[in-house]
């Protein structure tokens, strides 16, 4: 103790004790409070946690809304966000694993050609997996249900409040039936609501919806990555015009790949299952082309506004973005959204319309509405980065907290837009196709949490 007091440490300790003694009670309290203040990073994490909690509460609130359309849109947003989240993680893990195994990095123009070949190879593999899953779900490949049970319909209990829901019932116990519905009695003479249903076909369709949506989204991300790699080639990365040419070339490649999938042989299979298979392939094509075309078009649009290309993860150089540019790309998205509404008004579905014409109309409606969503995501990201550059928020422009905050803002906005968009849709319900536009906008805004 004498050594410490006599040394330099002792002198420092004595000065600290003397300073503490000279401080008043109020100054000592302020010093203690100042020491307990949170850092800027801690405040950002706290705001993110509050935003995530608010997002969850808002989703739970709208999921129990009194309007059926609002509840349906809410569940569509949540289910689609979950599906895209899982598919994006699956594709990203496979992509990073292949790049690590092949020692190929995303940055740099030296390996741009190799990454382009890798991207299109992954797209072909995921597309083949998509066709196999659709064929397996439809019962064309490795069928799990005998063909004899596909066309059988039976009377089953149709009451979700009962444990015996979907169980077969003896037709002799039916006392009244009309238009596929019936009323039967149990052993005690109590009425039971029944329905004439094809449980085997319902099982096939349910399995197809769950698997096809996941693989179609994964194939869409593979298509987006391949298109981005094509645009980032040194030749196409010179200006926006060449990037648009690469964009059109990529759409042609995707279209040809799906046309090649139509040569799938279905001889000896039930016509009901074959029709289900090709209908699912057509829906997957609309999803893949709609997501990839809208994303890549906004990629070119952002390149034209900022003069710098982004990457697959939407990373943009902070020096190339600004709040004004964010407003500009949002205005472009609004113009495209107005064009999609005008397309619905002017292009009505006609009787006996060819399948190709119907597919083109649905693809244009879906793609144009998704363009507005991607533009909104870019606008919020650029505005957040600009506010960080101007030190409005004490955070780094490319920090994870800024990305999370941008995603939460867009996701909260999507839920807030459900109510007004639902009112608009109800007022113009006579216009066919408007429902798909609003659904695509709401879903695309909601899934920005995972993008």
Which bin fits the share of residues in helices? 55-70%
Overall, the morphology is globular
Q: What integer is the average pLDDT? A: 75
For the sheet with most strands, the description reads: 4 strands, antiparallel
Low-confidence stretches: 1-6, 446-450
Order of strands side by side in the largest beta sheet?
1-4-3-2
Alpha plus pi helix count? 14
Total DSSP E strands: 4
Fraction of residues in β-strands: under 5%
Describe the structure in brief.
Helix content is 69%, strand content 5%. The protein has helices spanning 2-6, 8-22, 25-35, 40-63, 68-102, 112-137, 147-150, 199-231, 240-261, 271-306, 323-346, 355-389, 400-427, 434-446, and strands at residues 154-157, 174-178, 181-185, 191-197.
Give the secondary structure arrangement, pairings included:
Blueprint: H1 2-6, H2 8-22, H3 25-35, H4 40-63, H5 68-102, H6 112-137, H7 147-150, E1 154-157, E2 174-178, E3 181-185, E4 191-197, H8 199-231, H9 240-261, H10 271-306, H11 323-346, H12 355-389, H13 400-427, H14 434-446
Antiparallel strand pairs: 1-4, 2-3, 3-4
């Amino acid at each position: 103790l004498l050594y410490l007091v006599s040394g330099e440490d002792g002198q420092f300790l004595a000065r600290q004790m003397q300073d503490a003694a000279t401080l008043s009670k109020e100054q000592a309290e302020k010093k203690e409070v100042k020491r307990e203040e949170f850092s800027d990073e801690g405040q950002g994490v706290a705001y993110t946690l509050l935003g995530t909690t608010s997002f969850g509460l808002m989703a739970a609130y709208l999921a129990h809304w009194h309007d059926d359309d609002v509840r349906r849109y809410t569940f569509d947003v949540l289910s689609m966000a979950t599906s895209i989240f899982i598919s994006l993680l699956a594709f990203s893990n496979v992509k990073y694993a292949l790049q690590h195994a092949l020692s190929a990095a995303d940055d740099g123009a030296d390996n741009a050609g190799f990454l382009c070949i890798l991207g299109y190879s992954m797209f072909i593999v995921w597309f083949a997996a998509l066709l196999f899953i659709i064929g397996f779900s439809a019962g064309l490949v490795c069928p799990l249900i005998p063909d004899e049970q596909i066309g059988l319909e039976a009377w089953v209990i149709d009451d979700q409040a009962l444990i015996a829901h979907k169980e077969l019932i003896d037709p002799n116990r039916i006392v009244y039936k009309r238009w596929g519905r019936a009323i039967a009695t149990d052993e005690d003479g109590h009425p039971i609501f029944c329905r004439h249903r094809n449980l085997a076909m319902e099982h096939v369709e349910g399995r197809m919806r769950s698997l096809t949506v996941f693989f179609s989204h994964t194939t869409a991300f593979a298509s987006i990555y391949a298109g981005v790699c094509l645009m980032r080639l040194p030749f196409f990365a010179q200006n926006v015009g060449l990037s648009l040419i690469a964009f059109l070339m990529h759409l042609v490649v995707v279209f040809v790949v799906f046309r090649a999938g139509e040569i799938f042989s279905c001889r000896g299979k039930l016509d009901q299952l074959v029709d289900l298979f090709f209908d699912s392939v057509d829906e997957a094509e609309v999803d893949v082309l709609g997501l990839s075309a809208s994303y890549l078009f906004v990629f070119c649009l952002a390149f034209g506004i900022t003069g710098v290309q982004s990457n697959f993860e939407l990373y943009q150089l902070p020096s190339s973005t600004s709040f004004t540019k964010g407003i500009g790309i949002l205005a472009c998205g609004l113009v495209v959204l107005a064009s999609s509404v005008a397309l619905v008004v002017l292009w009505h579905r006609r009787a006996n319309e060819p399948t190709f014409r119907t597919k083109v109309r649905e693809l244009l409606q879906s793609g144009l509405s998704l363009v507005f969503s991607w533009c909104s995501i870019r606008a919020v990201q650029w505005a957040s980065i600009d506010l960080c550059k101007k030190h409005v928020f004490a955070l780094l422009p490319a920090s994870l907290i800024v990305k999370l905050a941008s995603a939460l803002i867009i996701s909260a906005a999507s839920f807030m837009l459900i109510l007004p968009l639902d009112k608009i849709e109800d007022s113009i319900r006579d216009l066919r196709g408007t429902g798909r536009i609003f659904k695509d906008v709401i879903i695309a805004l909601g899934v920005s949490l995972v993008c």
